């Protein structure tokens, strides 16, 4: 993570828009270098994309926006909410030049669109009366119309593209603003799923509102020019113009009402998506526990439930949208029908071709706004909830509300829940504490970060006065405070060594986090002077390399870095890794052992060179030898000699009496119980301290003996090692590099399965190479066309052949009826029909309504097919994710998985079916329009070669860069979400280190890459659109010249000429839409392609098929077991042979990273064996079904994992039914020593557990997970309860105190009934 990498690249070949010349801007020729490079290489890479304009730099935009938000005065009361103000401030106030550039081009487009009917009327009148206007004048009018169209389409493309730029910038600002505020928001307001959805879905939806400025231009021009348009229309058709205006106003009102009705269901969709995102994030981060506890069916049901509600809401939204479109279409038809009916039936006028087609052109100018109303209001209805949600998040003040603090109880203990405040009282308190909602404008996340002051000449490094520490929780009933420590008064001298000790749940971690400024105090003051470093009990690791985790965004200093690695006892561990400190640690450090994680975090604290270092039980995760090394080399010889203030929480009580420790803080009953040096505390007579003293004497006696034996054993080991190296040098060099054929087959099968149906190309070969070398840790961008199997995934899930056939028939009918209505108008105005005016009006109206009805029914059928496809794809992908091997989650960040389940799935829900339907309709419309033009004016066929060749060349040139830029933009979102997810889960560590600025720079780098992807994709598309529409003006010009000549010869009436010119004008735009639509379908299917890759994931090998009813003994035998985590990694277990008798109690000891946890993973088949076998009761475990094996072999993981829900749900989730009795649950809690704690909680077993169990200490979480594995998988009576046949405890007591540890050791020896 290097802030310097966010600087823009300077390239001279790929000039960006800033350097483009005038004609190049209107033809988008400045993007040609990217298109040329993509076609030369056959692919487009990130470096080939055009650079963002300087005005679009995300950092510059946010700085402007933050300054604006802070300067703005209060413009609304606390009760008023206007989310449009947020959007307006980003669109207009900080992008005025770009905003005006787009709007002015939009107005220019609309101006020429307004004057076109005037010239068309003159031309048609001249054709009707050939004697009044010369043929030269008619040709000049044709040239003027063609030039007007050229200017019009060029300005339209500029307006659309700049509108995309503005909205892309809006997304960049919102994403970064959400990121920054997330670092500051209090824990009780933190909803990880909702905030992730704000960034992944809501901000992205707003950023894709590409037509915002064009629609603004359209509406503003319409209202400004409305009197002029009505005047011209009145001069043409008289009082019928007012009837048309009434219909337009009625259509606008109706569409707006229907759009508002959509907002309710759109908000419901977002709420369900928030819930699903939260569950998905929780599930992926705890996938190891999910598999070990056999929770796959439970999680499938938990995630499917909100998805089902989401699908119902989406169905209602799409049905309402179809009805909205129907109403809008009918009202659009009613405008010309009402005008012509009033003009002919009421005013008794004869409808001529000049009047009809000129009026139709005027009406089209007005009607265009009406026709776009359903789409505009649908868009507003979809985006308004997203705007409101983001606005609420950004503008809700994060200032901690001061709540009354309850006095301690008479016995000295503080109640766990101090106060519960109803929401109404909370709102009143908020209103009193701030004059208006705009108080958020002065909050710290809008300010520039200032570096921490370096500690100098300060007596006390930490000062705490009358403070209370704990946490707050927001529930439906109000805000509650849970106080863990009260009445804390503490001073820590600079340069001293302080240790904090106490029982499980006494508040050690809470106190340390507050001292490190990672968590605010509930009340009172807590001040820490100087720079800080903090290592929590569960170390926070970025999903990056070991080096990146140690440097933590600071510049790399080799000498300092090597020293830190040495003091953290990491050199030996790095030597065992193939890529050394460039090894990717994976999500939450899954590639490392518990001890390695702790030491990497410790190395980070050393590298920071902080003044105050807070370490939370870092010695519990390492072996005794390593702990002594760290104590001496790191704590004593570095921290203390460098005059650093060291505050250490530890359950290793033997260190409390070390002479280096200046002071000890003992916690009990929510307060500081004892404080002072060991020489004073040792004589207090406390039982616990007496235990420490006895332990100290015992350890001192052991140390002398162990040191002698250790030196001798090390010398002997070195001698044997040297001897073996001389005798077997080649064997020792290659033993860990042996790879079996079945390992390669398994690795390649998963890669080739995910790429099913693709041709062998460079990307596939690269994937195979990365699978074999272990570098497949990035979201690679595919190359080439979307493969047919990927298309087939969607089409097979779409629905039955009957639905598809009916949709096609309705589309054909709609296209034909639309053409027939225009043909009827031409025949009517030409006087070729012998029908009355009333019949003509009714037929014209009937054809228009039939088109609208067909489109509505087709939209309903499309909804049915789209929902079926979305349901099937989500269900199959979720099944595959739950069945995926653990190695997949080790290399796939949570953000990447969430990107598939949120952003890509949203595209499949909403955009993919619409793009397919629109493309089919465009095809039918072009066929009918071309047929009509060439039937009426066959000489226009001469223009076909002139148009076909350039169109073909443009399409072939833009296809590769358009598709690949879309892939790059999709892939660029994953790092944004992955980094955001990492940061959310490590907020306390980031805040403690004062590293917010570094993380924000990293986020800006990812946001800039994502923004560049969308900018490049739109630029390529607009290049093709601009050239296509500009070249298409030739068709219009040729058609007009041919029509004038045919009319001069008397071979074409004026009505037919108006018809040809009308469709020629539409056709040049429709042909561009068709070409872009073909590319857009392929672009939209990138999401299907990415999802299909997950639907083809390899599943865990589950060879077992039959459940066994045998009585389990628990006898285990390892037979020459070898195992590695990844194909490129060294063997972690090497030929282990071991037999464990039934009911044995074994303790596996060894240095951190030696394979203890790996041995447990083998027993549960989380990872495949490289060689050998494991027998359980004489049967190879590969012959057991995974569910049976993991139900009988229970594991307490090294990292405790709790889900958000009730405590009861955390204990019984793995059961086959909900019939586990409370007696058994209370018994299991009593066995692990948590019964009293749970009884003191509000709700007891129904107590609400926060996400990841944050309202429990780490030690308490470990005890809960231990109790969970004791709960039987099937309901039974307390008398029939029995412990699991095999119980594996992986450092289950690492984070608990000595007394509780003794109890759990007794439990491991056999829990009594």
TrEMBL record:
Residues 117-382, 806-1083 form the ABC transmembrane type-1 domain. It is found in: Membrane. Pfam families: ABC_membrane, ABC_tran. Residues 700-723 are annotated as: Disordered. Keywords: ATP-binding, Membrane, Nucleotide-binding, Transmembrane, Transmembrane helix, Transport. Residues 462-694 form the ABC transporter domain. Residues 702-723 have a biased composition (Basic and acidic residues). The chain crosses the membrane at residues 98-115, 135-162, 802-829, 931-954. InterPro entries: AAA+_ATPase (IPR003593), ABC1_TM_dom (IPR011527), ABC1_TM_sf (IPR036640), ABC_transporter-like_ATP-bd (IPR003439), ABC_transporter-like_CS (IPR017871), ABC_transporter_C-like (IPR050173), ABCC_6TM_D1 (IPR044746), ABCC_6TM_D2 (IPR044726). This is Multidrug resistance-associated protein 1 (ATP-binding cassette sub-family C member 1) (Leukotriene C(4) transporter) (LTC4 transporter). SUPFAM superfamilies: ABC transporter transmembrane region, P-loop containing nucleoside triphosphate hydrolases. It comes from the Eukaryota. CDD domains: ABC_6TM_ABCC_D1, ABC_6TM_ABCC_D2, ABCC_MRP_domain1. Coiled coil: none annotated. It is a multi-pass membrane protein.
């Amino acid at each position: 993570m290097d802030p310097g990498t966010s600087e823009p690249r300077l390239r001279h070949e790929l000039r960006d828009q800033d350097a483009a010349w005038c004609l190049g801007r209107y033809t988008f020729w400045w993007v040609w270098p990217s298109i040329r490079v993509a076609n030369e290489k056959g692919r487009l890479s990130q470096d080939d994309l055009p650079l963002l304009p300087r005005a679009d730099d995300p950092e510059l935009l946010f700085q402007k926006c933050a300054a604006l938000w802070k300067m703005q005065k209060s413009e609304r009361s606390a009760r008023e909410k206007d989310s449009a103000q947020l959007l307006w401030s980003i669109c207009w106030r900080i992008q005025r030049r770009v905003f005006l550039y787009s709007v002015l081009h939009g107005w220019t487009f609309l101006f020429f669109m307004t004057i076109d009917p005037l010239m068309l009327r003159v031309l048609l009148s001249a054709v009707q009366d050939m004697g009044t206007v010369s043929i030269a004048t008619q040709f000049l009018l044709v040239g003027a119309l063609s030039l007007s169209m050229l200017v019009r389409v060029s300005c339209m493309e500029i307006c659309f593209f700049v509108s995309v730029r503005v909205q892309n910038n809006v997304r960049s600002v919102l994403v970064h603003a959400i990121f920054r505020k997330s670092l500051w928001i209090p824990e009780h307001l933190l909803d990880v799923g909702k905030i992730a959805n704000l960034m992944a879905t809501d901000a992205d939806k707003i950023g894709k509102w590409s037509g915002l400025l064009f629609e603004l231009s359209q509406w503003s021009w319409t209202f400004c020019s409305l009197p002029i348009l009505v005047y011209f229309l009145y001069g043409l058709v008289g009082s019928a113009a007012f009837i048309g205006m009434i219909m337009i106003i009625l259509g606008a009102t109706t569409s707006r009402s229907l759009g508002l009705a959509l907002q309710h269901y759109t908000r419901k969709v977002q709420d369900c998506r928030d819930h699903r995102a939260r569950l998905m994030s929780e599930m992926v981060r705890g996938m190891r526990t999910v598999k070990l506890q056999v929770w796959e069916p439970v999680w499938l049901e938990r995630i499917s439930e909100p998805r089902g509600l989401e699908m119902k809401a989406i169905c209602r939204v799409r049905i309402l949208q179809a009805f909205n479109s129907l109403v809008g279409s009918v009202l659009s038809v009613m405008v010309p029908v009402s005008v012509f009916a009033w003009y002919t039936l009421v005013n008794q006028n004869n409808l001529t071709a000049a009047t009809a087609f000129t009026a139709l052109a005027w009406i089209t100018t007005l009607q265009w706004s009406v026709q776009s109303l359903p789409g505009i209001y649908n868009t507003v209805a979809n985006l308004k909830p997203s705007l409101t949600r983001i606005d609420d998040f950004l503008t809700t003040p994060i200032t901690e509300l001061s709540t009354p603090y309850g006095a301690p109880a008479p016995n000295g203990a503080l109640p766990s829940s101090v106060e519960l405040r109803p929401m109404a009282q909370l709102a009143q308190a908020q209103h009193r504490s701030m004059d208006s909602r705009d108080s958020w404008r002065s909050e710290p996340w809008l300010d520039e970060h200032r570096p921490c002051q370096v500690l100098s000449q300060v007596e006390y490094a930490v000062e705490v006065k009358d403070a209370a520490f704990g946490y707050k929780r927001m529930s439906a009933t109000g805000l509650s405070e849970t106080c863990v420590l009260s009445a804390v008064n503490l001073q820590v001298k600079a340069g001293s060594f302080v240790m904090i000790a106490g029982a499980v749940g006494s508040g050690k971690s809470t106190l340390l986090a507050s001292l490190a400024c990672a968590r605010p105090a509930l009340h009172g003051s807590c001040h820490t002077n100087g720079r800080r470093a903090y290592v929590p009990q569960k170390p926070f690791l970025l999903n990056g390399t070991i080096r990146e985790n140690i440097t933590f965004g600071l510049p790399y200093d080799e000498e300092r870095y090597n020293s830190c690695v040495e003091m953290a006892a990491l050199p030996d561990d790095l030597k065992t890794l193939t890529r050394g400190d460039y090894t990717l640690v994976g999500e939450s450090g899954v590639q490392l052992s518990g001890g390695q994680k702790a030491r990497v975090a410790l190395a980070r604290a050393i590298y920071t060179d902080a003044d105050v270092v807070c370490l939370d039980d870092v010695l519990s995760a390492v072996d005794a030898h390593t702990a002594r090394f760290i104590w001496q080399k790191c704590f004593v010889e570095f921290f203390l000699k460098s005059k650093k203030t060291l505050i250490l929480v530890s359950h290793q009580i033997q260190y409390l009496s070390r002479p280096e420790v200046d002071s000890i803080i003992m916690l009990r009953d929510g307060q500081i119980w004892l404080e002072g040096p060991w020489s004073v505390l040792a004589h207090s007579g406390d039982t616990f301290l007496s235990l420490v003293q006895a332990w100290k004497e015992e350890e001192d006696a052991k140390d002398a003996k162990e040191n002698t034996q250790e030196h001798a054993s090390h010398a002997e080991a070195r001698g044997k090692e040297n001897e073996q190296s001389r005798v077997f040098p080649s064997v020792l060099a290659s033993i860990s590099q042996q790879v079996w054929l079945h390992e390669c087959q398994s690795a390649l099968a998963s890669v080739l399965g995910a790429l099913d149906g693709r041709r062998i190309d460079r990307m596939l070969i690269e994937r195979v190479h990365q699978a074999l070398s272990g570098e497949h840790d990035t979201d690679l961008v595919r190359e080439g066309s979307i493969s047919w199997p990927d298309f087939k995934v969607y089409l097979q899930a779409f629905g039955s052949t009957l639905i598809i056939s009916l949709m096609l028939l309705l589309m054909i009918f709609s296209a034909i009826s639309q053409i027939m209505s225009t043909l009827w108008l031409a025949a009517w105005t030409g006087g070729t029909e012998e029908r009355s005016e009333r019949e003509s009006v009714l037929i014209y109206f009937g054809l228009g309504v039939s088109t609208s009805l067909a489109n509505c029914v087709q939209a309903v059928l499309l909804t049915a097919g789209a929902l079926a496809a979305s349901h099937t794809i989500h269900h199959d992908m979720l099944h595959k994710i739950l069945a995926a091997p653990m190695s997949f989650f080790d290399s796939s960040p949570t953000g990447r998985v969430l990107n598939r389940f949120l952003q890509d799935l949203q595209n499949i829900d909403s955009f993919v079916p619409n793009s397919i339907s629109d493309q089919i309709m465009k095809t039918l419309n072009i066929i009918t329009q071309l047929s009509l033009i060439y039937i009426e004016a066959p000489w226009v066929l001469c223009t076909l070669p002139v148009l076909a060749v350039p169109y073909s060349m443009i399409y072939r040139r833009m296809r590769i860069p358009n598709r690949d830029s879309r892939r790059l933009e999709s892939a660029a979102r994953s790092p944004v979400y992955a980094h955001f997810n990492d940061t959310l889960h490590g907020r306390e560590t980031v805040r403690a280190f004062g590293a917010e600025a570094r993380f924000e720079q990293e986020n800006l780098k990812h946001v800039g890459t994502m923004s560049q992807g969308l900018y490049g994709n739109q630029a390529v598309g607009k290049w093709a659109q601009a050239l296509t529409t500009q070249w298409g003006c030739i068709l219009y010009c040729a058609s007009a010249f041919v029509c004038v000549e045919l009319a001069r010869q008397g071979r074409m009436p004026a009505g037919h000429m108006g018809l040809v010119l009308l469709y020629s004008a539409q056709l040049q735009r429709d042909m561009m839409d068709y070409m872009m639509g073909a590319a857009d379908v392929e672009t939209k299917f990138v999401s299907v392609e990415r999802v299909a890759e997950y639907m083809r994931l390899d599943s865990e090998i589950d060879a077992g098929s039959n459940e066994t009813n045998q009585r389990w003994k628990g006898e285990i035998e390892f037979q020459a077991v070898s195992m590695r985590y990844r194909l490129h990694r060294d063997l972690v277990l090497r030929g282990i042979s071991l037999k464990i008798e039934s009911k044995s109690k074994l303790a596996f000891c060894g240095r951190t990273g030696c394979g203890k946890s790996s041995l447990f993973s083998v027993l549960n088949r989380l990872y495949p064996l490289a060689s050998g076998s494991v027998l359980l009761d004489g049967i190879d475990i590969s012959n057991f079904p995974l569910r049976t094996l993991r139900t009988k072999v229970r594991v307490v993981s090294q990292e405790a994992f709790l889900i958000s829900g009730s405590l009861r749900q955390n204990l019984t989730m793995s059961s086959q039914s909900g019939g586990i009795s409370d007696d058994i649950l209370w018994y299991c809690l009593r066995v692990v020593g948590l019964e009293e704690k749970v009884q003191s909680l509000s709700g007891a077993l129904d107590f609400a557990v926060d996400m990841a169990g944050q309202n429990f200490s780490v030690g308490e979480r470990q005890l809960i997970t231990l109790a969970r594995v004791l709960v039987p998988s099937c309901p039974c009576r307390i008398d029939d309860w029995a412990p699991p046949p095999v119980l594996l405890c992986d450092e289950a007591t690492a984070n608990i105190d000595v007394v509780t540890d003794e109890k759990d050791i007794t439990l491991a020896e056999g829990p009594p009934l």
